[in-house]
Design goal:
With 594 residues, the protein is α+β, with helices and mostly antiparallel strands. The protein contains 26 helices and 12 strands. A 9-stranded mixed beta sheet has the order 4-5-6-7-8-9-10-12-11. Strands 1-3-2 form a 3-stranded antiparallel beta sheet. The two termini are 36 Å apart.
């Protein structure tokens, strides 16, 4: 009996059958999917929950197709999905239709307080689709508070007049120009005499909620993606079991290629859309560097995209690359990696739609790409990623996901607890760690060493320790005058390193010297380094301000004397109490979601 004949009559039952079959890959399952997809294209879906489930199943099958025919039918269904959404909105109850809000599906709206850089980007690319949410009273009130800094002094009486609603005032201030309220506000900020840093902080501090209508199907989750070249079709069970994670990381990687600027811009566009429609953000991606985008095409339809940061917004000492994983051209995962010496800290996430796919294998290829780029052999996962004050990570069992890959807690007490829990699991396969135990397990970072017999690191170099040394030095030697401290450090380091022509360097290279000098000046024997060591350090400084940060990462890792000096400085710093929560630019703010 074929699948269509055996299928129940109700559309909901057909959708449930398709969803249950989506991650099974046998010839029979392929035939079932084809039959169900053909049947469903003739069916209306008027229930919001069923519509969303249908969408998620189609998106999964687009990344994990069984055959070209399955993929063709899936893409055909997704291309017509806007009409399905419009039908539900036209015939459904208002309360039900509100459930489509923030879904990221085509012809729906997402609401999020996008930061200044992202708001400008959205207005540039989707000027008719993005607008201020005037029902966001808190954000609108904060905008009212910053307007006196931006307008003519004589306009303030109108802003202070309680009879005049702010939205009405904006309508008058815009005049007859055909621009959105958001675009007008951004232009007002841009034209002000305030420094760019102040403008960013003023806007970001308002946390103004924006509404983005997803009229562009390619920007939505529905049809997000890029041409994938050869499609990988799954005809066998997915790779979801145990794997030799370190072995996968060590495998030689096909060339990590720097892509042309036009391709880089398209990938950055795709990356930003993929996060924004999901109400997620990755701060360094706001300042993506089109000249520092690399891709690695690995097997099973995976493409790893690494995106660097423009020099002005790079981290003080660490390198940083955001990553996006495409599966048959579909965005399925994202995150970021911060290499420093031989350590690489990675925070990543599998998008929820694809968490029943090959999550562990995808992560192995991300680590493989970073290992090839940086040469790192020591991988660190911050505790937030495994559940520290992160409910999503606790719910998804992130700790055991990383544990099965070979990561172990850095904290000896947490390591002992994990070993005790593992003993219980082996004795009783049905045993599950309680929520309380998972919270205890999440109190430590987790790490993985590639080199056998290398031993665990006694203490990882923490950039914050070096930053603290700099703050104390400025307070003690310069009474808090940071401008004077930076000038003195730059002059002294330039003298120690025999750099006479540094003012003829490029702007980003000069900036790198000025930013690194407050750390380097603390190295007590810097002036006595050999000429070769000094020349290597100069190359590192210039690379920090270079086109690609990859060169900086590699040169820094290879300078053993600098590495030793930085560790000695950090280890001698007097530590401060650690806050209860730290989620800096490394974290995408979510669990791996697997």
């Amino acid at each position: 009996m074929n699948a269509t004949a055996a299928a129940p009559e109700s559309t909901q039952a057909l959708l449930e059958l398709l969803n249950s079959a989506k991650n099974r890959f046998t010839p029979a399952d392929c035939g079932t999917k084809v039959s169900l997809l053909r049947t469903l294209r003739e069916r209306e879906v008027r229930d919001v929950a069923c519509l969303v489930q249908f969408h998620e199943t189609l998106c999964f099958l687009r990344a994990y197709p069984d055959s070209p025919e399955v993929l063709r039918l899936v893409e055909q269904a997704l291309e017509g999905f806007a009409a399905r959404v419009d039908l539900v909105k036209a015939t459904g109850r208002s309360a039900e239709c509100k459930k489509l809000r923030d879904s990221g599906i085509v012809h729906t709206t997402v609401y999020y307080p996008y930061p200044h850089a992202m708001a400008k980007w959205l207005v540039n690319h989707f000027p008719r689709d993005v607008e201020m949410d005037w029902e966001d009273d808190a954000g609108v009130d904060k905008v009212r508070g910053i307007l006196p800094l931006l307008v003519a002094y004589a306009e303030n009486d109108a802003l202070d007049d309680e009879r005049i609603a702010l939205r009405d005032w904006v309508r008058v201030a815009k005049g007859t120009r055909d621009v959105s309220d958001l675009q007008w506000l951004l232009e007002l900020l841009h034209r002000s005499p305030l420094p760019p840093e102040i403008i960013r902080n003023l806007y970001d501090g308002a946390e103004l909620l924006l509404g983005w209508e997803l009229c562009d199907a390619a920007a939505s989750r529905t049809l997000a993606g890029c041409p994938a070249g050869r499609i990988f079709c799954h005809r066998r069970p997915l790779k979801r079991g145990q794997m030799d994670f370190p072995r996968e990381i060590r495998k030689p990687l096909p060339a990590l290629k720097v892509v042309p600027p036009r391709t880089a811009e398209a990938l950055i566009h795709l990356f930003r859309c993929a996060l924004s429609v999901r109400n997620r953000e990755l701060h360094p991606l706001l300042y993506a560097n089109p000249q520092d985008v690399m891709v690695a095409d690995v097997d099973r339809g995976l493409r790893i995209v690494l995106v660097g940061v423009i020099p002005e917004f790079r981290l003080p000492l660490e390198g940083y690359y955001s990553f996006l994983v495409l599966k048959n051209g579909v965005p399925v995962s994202y995150g970021g990696g911060g290499p420093l010496l031989d350590r690489l800290e990675i925070a990543g996430n599998i998008f929820e739609t694809f968490r029943q796919g090959e999550s562990a294998y995808i992560f192995s290829q991300v680590y493989r790409a970073f290992h090839h780029l940086c040469g790192s052999d020591y991988f660190l996962v911050p505790r937030y990623q495994v559940g520290y004050e992160n409910d999503e990570a606790l719910d998804s069992g992130a700790f055991w996901f990383y544990y099965k890959l070979g990561f172990r807690p850095e904290n000896p007490e947490v390591l002992k607890l994990s070993e005790d829990e593992q003993t219980k699991i082996k004795a009783d396969p049905a045993y599950r760690s309680s929520r309380k135990v998972l919270e205890q397990l999440s109190r430590s970072d987790m790490s993985l060493l590639l080199k056998e017999g290398d031993g665990r690191r006694s203490k990882v170099l923490q950039p914050g320790d070096l930053g603290l040394r700099v703050s104390r030095h400025i307070a003690q030697k310069f009474q808090g005058d940071r401008a004077a401290a930076i000038r003195a450090a730059t002059q002294q380091v330039a003298q120690h390193l025999d750099i006479r022509a540094w003012r003829r360097w490029s702007g980003p290279e000069q900036m790198a010297l000025e930013r690194l000098s407050p750390i380097l000046v603390l190295i007590p024997d810097l002036a006595r380094w050999s000429s070769a060591e000094k020349r290597s350090l100069v190359r590192i400084i210039r690379a920090k301000g270079g086109r690609s940060e990859a060169a900086y990462v590699r040169l820094l890792r290879e300078h053993h004397r600098l590495a030793r000096s930085l560790r000695e400085l950090a280890n001698s710093a007097t530590p401060l109490p650690v806050p209860t929560r730290q989620t800096g630019p490394m974290s995408p703010g979510t669990s791996p979601g697997v």
